[in-house]
Amino acid sequence: MSTDFAVDLTNCDREPIHILGAIQPSGFLLALTADWMVARASVNLVQFIGREVADVLGLPLGEVFTPQAVHDLRNRSAMLRGNDAVERMFGIELVQGCVPFDVAVHFSGSSVVIEAEPSRGSMGDVTGIVRSMFSRLDQCADMASFYRMGARQIRSLVQFDRVMVYKFAEDGSGEVVAEAVRPGIGQFMGLRYPASDIPAQARQLYMRNLLRVIGDVRAEPVPIVPGRDETGAPLDLSLSLLRSVSPIHIEYLKNMGVEASLSISIIVEGKLWGLFACHHYGPNNPNFERRAIAELFSQMFCMRLESRERQETMDFERRARDISDQLLGAVASDDSLLRDPDWLADILTHAISADGVGVWLSGSYAFSGQCPPTDDFRRIIRALNTTAAGKVYATDRIGALIPNAEAFSDKAAGMLAIPISRSPRDYVVLFRQEMVHSVRWAGDPHKPVDYGPNGPRLTPRQSFAEWKELVRGRSKPFTQSELRVAETLRATLIEVVLRLADEASSERQQASDRQELLIAELNHRVRNILGLIRGLIRQSQPSDPALAGFVKMIDGRIHALARAHNQITEDHWGPAPLQSLIDAEAAAFMVEEDRIRSNGASVMLNPLAYSTMALVLHELVTNSTKYGSLSVKEGHVAIDWDFGPKGDLRLRWRDVGGPPVTQPERQGFGTTIIQRSVPYDLGGEAAVRFLESGFEADFCIPKRHVAEALTGMRAIKFAKSGPGHQEEPPQDLLAGQRVLLVEDSLIIALDAEDIVARLGAQDVLTASSVDSALDLIAAAPPSVAILDINLGSTTSFAIADALLERDVPFMFATGYGEQAKFPDVHRGRPVVQKPYTIGNIARALVDVLRAPDETAREPDGN
């Protein structure tokens, strides 16, 4: 048996050199780490040169090998390229008068490793032999005959009793897919072996060293002497032809009754596809030339195999393109087909075989063929939403994705899910029924190893008798070619969905434009009606003082409603900030800014809640101005709010420093509004307390009436100009700032330019594309930036990256109702909803300029 032998040279002068070594009959190995042409040998080479030890001790190696051999070895070592390169020579006369040797040369770290075996004849016309082998291989019509011919050709070369083509599965197990065997010794065709039979480290070695041979399992290994080189490191013999193998593997072969083995790696597209596994039931060590030809044949076999598999993929992809064209053409004329599972199943299953198709679009579903029950289909969709977005997901066992899938495995055991949107995710799912089949294992796969005589290491399995396992709950696996087809179909389906979405978006935009016009006209009329009512009330001033007070009270309530209506219609009947409502009421009563003190995160109220709270706050301010803390100079009102565990808004009103309060004898209409409006109109809660120290009121507004809060942003109070005022931000908010405005619409950009100029910006730079913005940043970075997220077919995230690198504060803007999907690095940035107003830009800018890295990404709808 071939074993290890190493030579370690510690210097290259004329002093004796110590050499690691081991010699055995089948050959020798030298590892030379110095100028080995002048190194002196002190190893016993008598077994292969027929000379006494004394004849070679102390001689330079150049005097042991012939000059021609030294010349050839030097040239071959210079030809080595790459970490795992090996050069071979045949029939070389290494020693004068000795038998010729077949030699292999390779690098191992800093050493040049020379391996030699006595030559055992030549096969003659090697080129003709190899050409004939490949001619037979190319004539195979299908993959099964291709595998079988490969096994036959290898057996004709190495002359082993059994040659198998062993293919690895995705789970690491292997199956014998072809076999060439001597008659009368049984067949292993179709047997499977568990992944543990070939450990991970062995698979890595198969990738580096394509051919490994064990000529005799009973041969005694010869140790390396000494075991380490001058640096104390062992020699890496991964590429050695003569190295010994693990005793565990020897025991494995003995358990199978095998006395010699040879394995050749099959590598396809850089991965270990399988092996040519050769067994012989007696000692057998093919000569160097036969092994080299077998290795060459296996490399060409790999190329042919890769070409055939690639051709299959191309055929699949061609079919997928045809189906994609058919699908696009059909849907273009009838978009309802996308929701027809029978039609989709007929189209898709021509490319990917399936027993059923389920479609999930916008929360609705439809089935064709054999599919899971409805509730289980929903569970599958929920589980799919936890997988990687935008990728095809395939499994031959749905039970690996969701629990209790065995209950419907007779209808759907495996699936291939094709996502056709991002969020919320929609899917077309192809289902395959359970494939109950018997797997023939070479031994029980559930007990592949045992702890035994080799100490803490694992010992090989003791039995290789055929062991059958009935496999349930699995379908036929989806192949890599089918997955590639699915990716092609995914792109097509997404194109179809996007086209339909564009058409629907266009229709929605037209409807939205009509609705905007209608709402604008309606808002105009509502404002006119409220103004008319206020005019009638003011023109109807009675002479009775009691009635005059009543008229004034009614006028104030209508005015409060009018202010609230103006606020919520400024943004097209959208959410409005609670702080603006408080500021408006304070201004209406000419209350000094520090008399009403508010504290709480910026929060938006939906229109219904905003109108209701306008009346409630109006009554609270009215009562406090008449009877409470706002009726005296030293008093003030404290308003604060926060969020409850369920997201409800909790608001508290406290009169502080006012006159003593007593419980009123009767409840007026104003108190009724305070106590009953929130519970009745909003389904919330309200509680009032007439404490001697001051009036108190607590409100709970349900979460559904509260828009997303501007978490982390403080409330902004602008200067007030009196009753009916409009919020006016400070004119110096952007004083001295150089502002970059990225916006692809000229009209909107001009409007935004005017807003930032009103806020005091010193210089405003505008850009409509990513490239132009990056050029402006490179030329002179701005001090703050406003980035429209969507710029035609791209986004402004690349601009945000450039600003982040330069520590320039910025915020995003969008005209879409729902938030865009942000990269992780930009989550937490403020997002301003279009259309731009001086209020919503100012609010976001205050927070951006204050702490750009701590702001929260939430929409501001003011």
Task: List descriptors.
Beta-Lactamase; single chain; alpha+beta; 6 domains; 6-stranded antiparallel β-sheet; disordered N terminus; 862 residues; disordered C terminus; 36% helix
Mean pLDDT reading? 76
Shape: elongated
Beta-strand content: 15-25%
CATH architecture of the largest domain: 2-Layer Sandwich
* Number of spatially distinct domains: 6
Give the fraction of residues assigned to helices: 25-40%
Q: In this structure, how is the largest beta sheet organized?
A: 6 strands, antiparallel
The CATH topology annotation of the largest domain reads as Beta-Lactamase
Termini gap:
85 Å
The helix count comes to 20
- Structural category is alpha+beta
CATH top level of the largest domain is Alpha Beta
Please mark out the parts with pLDDT under 50 across 5 or more consecutive residues, or reply none.
1-25, 34-58, 437-441, 454-459, 466-470, 709-727, 852-862
Rg calc: 42 Å
